[in-house]
């Protein structure tokens, strides 16, 4: 399997060069940035100057690529000195490549790959032997990308392609992409009246309609109910705080450029909009003396945080500047870590099973040798062993990733698979020995000695906005009955049966659902407009109402209602409607 993966990645890398060669022939003035192989395909960042390249040009570029591939041009590696490489970049007027070469040390040997006589590129490789071995591919998208990821640099055009070993794999991928487009949460968010954005409010700051607010509240309340059952207590913290708090916690040094700053006009004090909640919860724990009898202490808080994300990285609800976290923090003894993690894993499993995403993998995120991590390495080693043991004890399917840990400790990131096979990072459990140390948190143990607690960070949904982006696409907008913003719509054929419609709505008003949330009243509406029944059905179906009740004179006469669900239609007696809906 590893050899197959290596082969495909070589193929994708070569295709990025083939694409660049085609572009060079079609747009001789183009300047090239970088063109790596990526998951499922490849891309190249290109400066087209004043020429605007759009997705309508992709077919022409693809046709040129196929011509190059058919020639089976060899991919030959050669090494040159740094000086020769610089001269090449200057002669070819490749300013972006020149910048890359200038950053390499003096005396460095630099590798190039020549595609026959057609194209040469600065590259470490590897590649397939010749272009004829590239395999099935398709160009799919044009996007903008800042050079070197720096928004202060020029905007380049990024051309994306996908490539696989077989035509079947390519066709399957393209089919999934079409399905993903139909499920796009931004499109559904608009058509189902869930959320919107406003230029006057600002990029990355979503506004939720009544329907969208109902959905997010139901999800947040369900998450809260699971944690309340596990002993968590709700707390509240303000939305701004002195920057000193983040300097003390270590967040300022790591994420200072993501803070929205607020200056007091009274005394000039410097505040920030809250980007995370853990330092605040640490202050609540530290606000009074604690003893071992209280441990563990568990706090939860669904609260909106704010991060100054780059505009180019924002996307619908997936990446926002105002993110609402269903945040939790446990302060416990080292001996209690195992049980607390088991509790949190159980919560995650129950929630994602309920929302239909029960296939979970755990990414164990460890530190690497970079100096971005805080705390003693021995504590890290112990914490990483505990995280791994927790995954084993809880029979989690897991994989390990170095360099993905939070700066204060290792974590379990839960990866959920959606309805079309895509994997998303959702919930998280993180161990933290650093913040208790930095804030000097302590409790008195059985011996009357001061002991340092361990802090466990947990989010079940994570960012509610990001979770909703995943959940909307997972369901395609057909939400499970329990969390649909509007669960039932009554369609009255005419106004001559208004008295019978009133009897039906009385029944609907009496329905109380208790799973997964207790005391949850049925959410319904009545469409008694003058429109035709066909229009009413179409309107309700477009809004993806899970249960439609159609009521006409014959239904009144028979004392029943016609029920239309997504997958079936049936008749139910009025006296049995309450029980039917409670079961539904």
Helix/strand layout:
Elements: H1 2-26, E1 31-32, E2 37-38, E3 41-47, H2 58-70, E4 75-81, H3 82-91, H4 95-102, E5 109-115, E6 119-122, E7 137-146, E8 155-163, H5 167-183, H6 185-191, E9 195-196, E10 207-208, H7 210-229, E11 233-234, E12 240-242, H8 243-249, H9 251-255, E13 261-263, E14 270-273, H10 278-285, E15 297-306, E16 322-332, H11 337-354, E17 360-366, H12 377-393, E18 398-402, E19 411-417, E20 423-432, H13 434-438, E21 443-444, E22 450-451, E23 454-463, H14 464-475, E24 488-492, H15 498-510, E25 512-513, E26 520-521, E27 524-527, H16 533-542, E28 547-551, H17 553-558, E29 560-565, E30 569-573, H18 577-583
Parallel strand pairs: 11-15, 17-18, 24-27, 24-28
Antiparallel strand pairs: 1-3, 2-3, 3-8, 4-5, 5-6, 7-8, 9-10, 12-14, 13-14, 15-16, 16-23, 17-19, 19-20, 20-23, 21-22, 25-26, 28-29, 29-30
Helix pairs in contact: 1-2, 3-4, 6-14, 7-11
